[in-house]
UniProtKB/TrEMBL annotation:
<feature type="transmembrane region" description="Helical">
    <location>
        <begin position="251"/>
        <end position="274"/>
    </location>
</feature>
<keyword id="KW-1133">Transmembrane helix</keyword>
<keyword id="KW-0812">Transmembrane</keyword>
<feature type="transmembrane region" description="Helical">
    <location>
        <begin position="131"/>
        <end position="151"/>
    </location>
</feature>
<feature type="transmembrane region" description="Helical">
    <location>
        <begin position="77"/>
        <end position="95"/>
    </location>
</feature>
<protein>
    <recommendedName>
        <fullName>DUF4129 domain-containing protein</fullName>
    </recommendedName>
</protein>
<keyword id="KW-0472">Membrane</keyword>
<feature type="transmembrane region" description="Helical">
    <location>
        <begin position="28"/>
        <end position="44"/>
    </location>
</feature>
<feature type="transmembrane region" description="Helical">
    <location>
        <begin position="107"/>
        <end position="125"/>
    </location>
</feature>
<feature type="transmembrane region" description="Helical">
    <location>
        <begin position="172"/>
        <end position="199"/>
    </location>
</feature>
<feature type="transmembrane region" description="Helical">
    <location>
        <begin position="51"/>
        <end position="71"/>
    </location>
</feature>
Length: 397
């Protein structure tokens, strides 16, 4: 759905940039095909544990956007620009979220992009591609309806997952999916039939008049000239007119200030680039593990499996940020253990006896029933933990 939201932008850009290449409509089918690499980014975020592999897969997605055929360089460039935005957004989700899932664009924003691009397209005098604007917007609306159903069903699972009764989850999903599919099909046909009429033309005329009124209001705020024309004094000498005087050279002080401003801006850019590279290197060195497959450190079996708990460090912003970044690269079991440590360190238990508390003792002292069971599964069991266990542990936290 997010990929389709930017298809009107590609249509408008091909017209606005006609000076670079002849205007050629981007293929809607190829644009929808580009959603497959974007969908693949979710599995890359969820499965990759090493930064090098993560960046390599995101680079391959950009290569896929380049390989997909395009009518000209402008269409390929716009598609690469949109793909780069999705890649940057994917990396942001990898480092800043816990479930790595992307959210759909709000429907009013998607409709606003389509209407604005269509207005610019009509402003350029191109009305041939209106059908593709309408089709892309209709598809966005239909996909949004499917997404709403899936989100509602996911919330239903979350609420009733721990229910003691037997709930037919699969039957409910099939029934809801059939109803949603019928609604999407009928709504798509109805919208496609209605969109063939000229109902959009009055709206665009109203939008154009509104924009013109806003521009007139803004220009009206500017100071008006006095209305007097500059008088050019002609000097005569002898029998002929003298040529007009050339403009004087700018004052030397303004030239010096201009060069000083340019040098200061260059110094600031170099300094910011240096700080950014230094912080990136520090982050990669401290928080990322570039380990080879199969090189897992073995610990002696006689080692005590009790969680090592230390006193909580100072709650500074920098340390909290570093903890947050490291938390994003942990698996479900490690996240549960990290939350358990944070809960115990922040509790009011005696600090001297804190290392001797077991999970059951801490659960009784804090009166948090259910915390120890999930922690023991993450700490001692060979059964892998899931994202549901992480969400359940968050409730106890």
């Amino acid at each position: 759905m997010n990929q389709l939201c930017f298809y009107p932008l590609a249509l408008t850009a091909s017209t606005l940039l006609a000076a670079l290449a002849p205007a050629s409509r981007p293929s809607l089918a190829l644009w929808m095909l580009g959603a497959l690499p974007v969908f693949f980014l979710y599995y890359a975020r969820k499965r990759c544990k090493h930064l090098s592999v993560l960046l390599l897969l995101h680079g391959l997605v950009l290569a896929c956007f380049y390989i997909i055929p395009a009518a000209n360089g402008v269409n390929r460039g716009i598609r690469l620009l949109v793909g780069a935005g999705f890649v940057i957004y994917s990396l942001w989700l990898r480092f800043r979220t816990e479930d790595f899932a992307s959210d759909p664009l709000p429907l009013p924003l998607a409709a606003g992009i389509a209407f604005l691009c269509l207005f610019l397209q009509h402003y350029q005098g191109n009305n041939v591609w209106d059908l593709y604007y309408r089709m892309s917007l209709i598809l966005v609306f239909l996909l949004y309806a499917v997404i709403l159903f899936l989100q509602s069903y996911e919330d239903f699972l979350t609420v009733n997952r721990l229910s003691t009764g037997k709930i037919p989850f699969q039957e409910i999903f099939r029934s809801g999916l059939h109803s949603t599919a019928a609604f999407v099909l009928l709504s798509g046909l109805l919208l496609l039939a209605v969109s063939q009429f000229a109902w959009l033309k009055p709206f665009l005329r109203l939008l154009r008049n509104g924009l013109a009124a806003i521009l007139r209001f803004l220009f009206g705020l500017l100071p008006m000239d006095s209305g007097t024309e500059a008088v050019v004094v002609e000097q005569q000498a002898g029998g002929g007119d003298m040529p007009p005087m050339e403009a004087e050279d700018p004052f030397i002080l303004w030239v010096i200030l201009e060069y000083v401003a340019m040098i200061a801006l260059l110094i600031v850019c170099v300094f910011l680039l240096y700080r950014g590279i230094r912080k990136l290197i520090t982050f990669l060195r401290d928080r990322m593990q570039f380990s080879l497959p199969g090189t897992v450190s073995e610990q002696p079996e006689s080692m005590d499996k009790r969680e090592h708990l230390e006193a909580a460090p100072e709650n500074t912003a920098a340390k909290q940020k570093q903890k947050w970044f490291s938390f994003a690269f942990l698996d479900a079991g490690q996240k549960i253990r990290r939350m358990y440590q944070k809960k115990i360190n922040a509790s009011g238990l005696a600090k001297m006896s804190l290392p001797f508390y077991t999970a059951r003792d801490a659960e009784k002292s804090l009166d948090v029933e259910g915390m120890a069971e999930i922690y023991e599964k993450a700490r001692y069991s060979d059964v892998p933990c899931t994202d549901g266990d992480v969400r359940q542990m968050k409730k106890y936290m």
